[in-house]
Automatic annotation (TrEMBL):
Cofactor(s), names only, from the UniProt record: Mg(2+); Mn(2+)
One annotated GO biological process: 'de novo' IMP biosynthetic process
Gene name as annotated: purD
Name of the protein this chain belongs to: Phosphoribosylamine--glycine ligase
Keyword set, alphabetical order: ATP-binding, Ligase, Manganese, Metal-binding, Nucleotide-binding, Purine biosynthesis
Pathways per UniProt: Purine metabolism; IMP biosynthesis via de novo pathway; N(1)-(5-phospho-D-ribosyl)glycinamide from 5-phospho-alpha-D-ribose 1-diphosphate: step 2/2
Catalyzed reaction equations: 5-phospho-beta-D-ribosylamine + glycine + ATP = N(1)-(5-phospho-beta-D-ribosyl)glycinamide + ADP + phosphate + H(+)
Its EC number(s): 6.3.4.13
Gene Ontology molecular function, alphabetical: ATP binding; metal ion binding; phosphoribosylamine-glycine ligase activity
Family: Belongs to the GARS family.
The protein's enzyme class: ligase
Iron-sulfur keyword on record: no
Lineage: Bacteria, Bacillati, Cyanobacteriota, Cyanophyceae, Leptolyngbyales
Length: 431
């Protein structure tokens, strides 16, 4: 069986890696892939834009591909899956309508209200004056979100009224382009954030292991938000009983809401949740794809072949699939970034030491790298994701950090406190 993975980040490297662990998968084509996928045996990069529906369809047909797995949200939001399905190609990822769940926060809020999914109270605005009036009535802290896709930069958690006011002005002055034409203003929630990535064939939905990300660049969760600086799975913050509540209160009603809108959603529904101090899960966002770096922590624990899950979703057979099998272990992924990220950073940095860092339980996923004439260099802000599996969290973290010690590139930066919330949780399970 051959597959196409669309995208070029650590998530896509992990997806291709996991597919190729199965003897049934003979080749993965990454469009466009990165230095890590270029080095993966039986994996081939094809230089083509992730949104080039015609090119991807041609590549799938010429190579007799069993399915296309789409990593990032942008091509899904632009209708890549619809275009491929119209050529009878199996696709793991929702069409343009379903992708609105991530591409429009106002649309997602409407769906959640209709489907009675627990989420932060919110109001939607199309002009600055009414938005400003609203935040003045509500007061801070409050959360201001550009409606559309803004590459992870559209959300401001405003601790003061002044911050909320500048965020509203920025969005309506066109800082995020059309993504900021509408603004969602949301109640500020406190509690631990958990990412539940679920797979669905549009009829049945099943969660993968819950994970936790680290959004902020600085240790102790300080500084600006990033794409994610590290993750681990599973998390004790979401024990099985709570995950069962997420299934019943969030995933199933959301799928029903999609069905009620006539949407055939096949792929990942990623619920970004906050577990409130009262212990209740509330949705703060939905994504229409695998999380990055959560995927780099979740997939190394998955024993069930990924292609079986993907094919079952594409062919609407998820209900008859046996329960997914997981390693009885923990995984941690620590992201190594270029100095300056998420602001300006250098590219083209030479990377060394990956081969010595890897072993049977440690894998280095490439996020922003390229391989050219045998030289591995950086191309992005997040450069590598170092993932390790071990019987427990502290050993998995220790393994990931000792692998990091063997990898060098100039000015590399990583957070040394990945997993700090679990440590806190272990010492104060109710907090
Ligand atoms: P998003 O891009 O929607 O994931 O939001 C980015 C980050 O903002 C989230 O990971 C949270 O840390 C934070 N955030 C979003 N919505 C809320 C909320 N209602 N209350 C508190 N924090 C939030
Ligand atoms: N790790 C956050 C995301 O994938 O959106």
């Amino acid at each position: 069986m051959k597959a196409i993975v669309v995208g070029s980040g650590g998530r896509e490297h992990a997806l291709a890696w996991k597919l190729l662990r199965s003897p049934k998968v003979t080749e993965v084509v990454c469009i466009p892939g990165n230095g890590g996928t270029a080095l993966l045996p039986n994996c081939r990069n094809v230089a083509m834009a992730e949104t080039d529906a015609e090119g991807i369809a041609r590549c799938a047909l010429v190579n007799n591909i069993s399915f296309v797995l789409v990593g990032p949200e942008q091509p899904l939001a632009q209708g890549l899956a619809d275009a491929l399905r119209s050529e009878e190609i199996r696709v793991f990822g929702p069409g343009k309508k379903g992708a609105q769940i991530e591409a429009s926060k106002a649309w997602a809020k409407d769906l959640m209200a209709e489907a009675n999914v627990p989420t932060a109270a919110a109001a939607v605005f199309t002009d600055a004056e009414s938005a400003l009036l609203y935040v003045q009535q509500q007061g801070a802290p409050i959360v201001v979100k550009a409606d559309g896709l803004a590459a992870g930069k559209g959300v401001t958690v405003a601790m003061t009224l002044d911050e909320a006011i500048s965020a509203i002005k920025a969005a309506f002055s066109g800082q995020f382009g059309a993504a900021g034409d509408r603004v969602v203003i949301e109640e500020f929630l406190t509690g631990q954030e958990v990412s539940v990535l679920a797979v669905t064939d549009s009829q049945t939905i099943r969660p993968l292991l819950p994970a936790q990300d680290h959004k902020q660049i600085g240790e102790g969760d300080t500084g600006p938000n990033t794409g994610g600086m590290g993750a681990y799975a599973p998390t004790p913050v979401m024990p099985p009983a709570l995950l069962e509540r997420v299934q019943k209160e969030v995933l199933e009603p959301t799928l029903k809401g999609l069905q009620d809108r006539g949407i055939d959603y096949r792929g990942v529904l990623y619920a970004g949740l906050i577990v409130t101090p009262a212990g209740d899960p509330k949705v703060i966002e939905f994504n229409c794809r695998f999380g990055d770096p959560e995927t780099q922590a979740v997939l190394p624990l998955l024993e069930t072949p990924l292609e079986d899950i993907v094919m079952a979703c594409c062919e609407q057979r998820l209900a008859s699939m046996p329960p997914f099998v997981w390693k009885n272990a923990a995984a941690a992924c620590v992201v190594m970034a270029a100095e300056g990220y998420p602001g300006d950073y250098k590219k083209g940095l030479a990377i060394d030491g990956i081969a010595t860092a890897e072993d049977a339980e440690t894998v280095v996923f490439h996020a922003g790298t390229r391989l050219s004439e045998g030289e591995l260099t950086s191309t992005g802000g997040r450069v590598l994701g170092v993932s390790a599996v071990a019987p427990d969290f502290s050993s998995a973290l220790a393994k990931a950090y000792s692998a990091i010690d063997k990898i060098q590139f100039p000015g590399s930066y990583y957070r040394r406190d990945i997993g700090h919330r679990i440590k806190r949780h272990e010492s104060a399970p109710d907090g």
